[in-house]
């Protein structure tokens, strides 16, 4: 395996680094969204009970302990619950916009990694072919077969490695983007329900 990686040349270093970064981001986001759903589901059930009792201190404490975008918006809504409806709505909408980047954390970087990995693989293909043609141009017949094989290996290995990193990175980037859009819709719906309870429009 090491000899195969080594045959890809110096460009394998940034490709491997991209692969490590992409793997970290993918695992981190998968765990984040898994815990997000679990924590928010539990918080919603607990909020229903305390809001029916109008125990806003307990509701705030639950939100502080949860530490999710939903809990952050609800906490803000509770703190301004005595304002007029139109002002409360504006503040809550502003807070929702402020927490959206938490869903999108590192997703732009993941998409960038997918593009960079593809380009690095393509760059390796070009440099490998340049070396191969250089060997052919320098030799009488087929040049030095060992050097020629090394140049071709560099082109193929970097291309394969770049695609190996880029393809799953792109797939998960698109998956997380759709997931973020879904979570934002759920956030808006859940927050609206809580706000209606706070303002007395929903029992």
TrEMBL record:
It is a multi-pass membrane protein. One of its GO terms (cellular component) is plasma membrane. Pfam families: MotA_ExbB. One of its GO terms (biological process) is protein import. The keyword Cell membrane applies. Residues 68-188 form the MotA/TolQ/ExbB proton channel domain. Keywords: Cell membrane, Membrane, Protein transport, Transmembrane, Transmembrane helix, Transport. It is found in: Cell membrane; Membrane. InterPro entries: ExbB/TolQ_transport, MotA_ExbB_proton_chnl. The chain crosses the membrane at residues 12-32, 146-172. Belongs to the exbB/tolQ family. This is Biopolymer transport protein ExbB.
């Amino acid at each position: 395996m090491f000899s195969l990686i080594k045959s890809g040349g110096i460009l394998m270093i940034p490709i491997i680094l991209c692969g490590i970064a992409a793997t970290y981001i993918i695992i981190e986001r998968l765990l984040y969204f898994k815990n997000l759903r679990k924590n928010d589901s539990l918080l919603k059930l607990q909020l229903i009970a305390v809001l029916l009792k109008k125990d806003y201190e307990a509701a705030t404490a639950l939100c502080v302990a949860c530490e999710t975008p939903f809990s952050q918006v609800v906490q803000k809504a509770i703190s301004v619950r005595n304002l007029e409806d139109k002002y409360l709505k504006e503040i809550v909408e502003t807070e929702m916009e402020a927490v959206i980047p938490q869903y999108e954390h590192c997703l732009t970087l993941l998409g960038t990694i997918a593009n960079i990995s593809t380009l690095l693989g393509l760059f390796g293909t070009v440099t490998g072919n340049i070396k191969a043609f250089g060997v052919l141009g320098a030799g009488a017949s087929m040049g030095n077969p060992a050097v020629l094989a090394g140049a071709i290996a560099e082109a193929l290995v970097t291309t394969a490695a770049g695609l190996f990193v880029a393809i799953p990175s792109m797939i998960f980037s698109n998956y997380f983007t759709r997931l973020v859009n879904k979570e934002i819709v759920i956030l808006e719906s859940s927050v609206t329900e809580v706000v209606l309870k706070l303002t007395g429009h929903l029992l």
